[in-house]
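Listing S7. Sequence submitted for prediction.
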Amino acid sequence: MLSAAAFNAFLKTLEEPPPYAIFILATTEKHKILPTILSRCQIFDFKRITTHDIVAHLQSIASKEGMIAQEAALHVIAQKSEGAMRDALSMLDRIASFTNGMLTYSNTMEHLNLLDADFYFRLTDSMLSQDVAGTLLLLDQALEKGFEGDVIINGLAEHFRNLLLCKDARMAKLLDVPNDHRPMYNEKANQTPPSFILSALNVINDSELQYKSATNKRLHVEMCLIRLCFLLQSIPASQSAGGDDVKKNSSSVSIPLTNNPQPVNNQSQSSVKAQEPVVESVPYPVNNIVEKKVEEAVAKPIQPQPAPAPTQKQDPVAKQPVSAAKKLSMNMLQDIESEVAKATANQDTEQKILTEERAEELFDAYKKKLQSEGKSVLFSQFCMMRVEVLPPDELRLISPSELTDTYAREQRSLLTDFYRTETDMIVRITTAIIEDESVKAAQNTVVLSKSEMYEAMARKNPAVAALKDGLGMQIEY
């Protein structure tokens, strides 16, 4: 707290100091000290203590004091202290007095009023499965325990940052989590696409900036979580709208009665209107042949009739369209009935059956379609499924877990449309859960850290440990 004049006076003292004097300047604002003074000093920059060093020091104290402390609990204390050993020792002493020297991960999180990693893992699973109800229920549980909305948003941002760091092995040293949680983060990072993580971080950052100005804090946090639930939803609305337009265009049939407008009396209008319901009640054409016959039957009466002489009376002219309309409806109905009967007979004789090879081929094509559309989560889940055909038209999706079965049930309607388009038959799609031993073994695979890998190698080959000790090598974390 020296002024510029005081610094100038102090500079005179430093230029000719007494031989017994040593000046020690401690400051957090080195840039405010005059450069002429800094040039006469030996500068030592103090940095924050790393989390690993704090955990190691707390472990040594706990062993000397007879405490039983889990490494994950000490890691949480070190993270909460933010590089200050004094704060870490104060928290260790306070929690040890509350727990009688038994420091576990759960009671440490409870006394420090923090949300554990399991909460954020469950929240991420609900978002990936687009379960809005489950997400809001988890938020309600956290709010009932007394956690504020900004604490939940900040913790969720840190969680997604850790998932992003696990995407690249080169960033593993930046992951500041307990060693027990590293395998879970690596597994969840492999299931979460990078685009989802980056978009989620963007949404969370905007919500965090707007949290202070929000009037309804809870609704603000809920809207943030709901937006995160629908990040993976990418079904284009143009497909469904285009399909409806095609059906409307194919089912609508307009039949002009004549090209030249002619005056008709009320009797002819009523007869024409009486024939229109007959045309609208025609069933949807079953094939192209029926459509052609309808077009031919409709096109026949469209031929323009010669205009009557003006000297003729109006009654004979008015009766002519009525008789033509009657001939039109009879001929058209006879042709349509015959063609529908032929098409029905062909369908009865040629019943299609879905084969095992065709079903697997189309299932692989659907997975490639998901991959090309950028739906990496659905693609990874469908890669764990297998198909089973139950003749003549049932296709069963076999899933190894409940989560994979959830994705299968959500995609049944789209998969049914895909098979109907490719095979021209309606396929009934069902789901089933059959646990796969290979999937179980893959899920039970433990991801080892560098120190654990070294210990395993040393137990297998003691010469590795001798080589490390002989050369004075250290494990790089």
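Caption to Listing S7: primary sequence and predicted structure tokens for the chain studied. The mean pLDDT is 75. The chain has five domains: 4-38, 51-111, 117-229, 269-302+316-350, 356-443.
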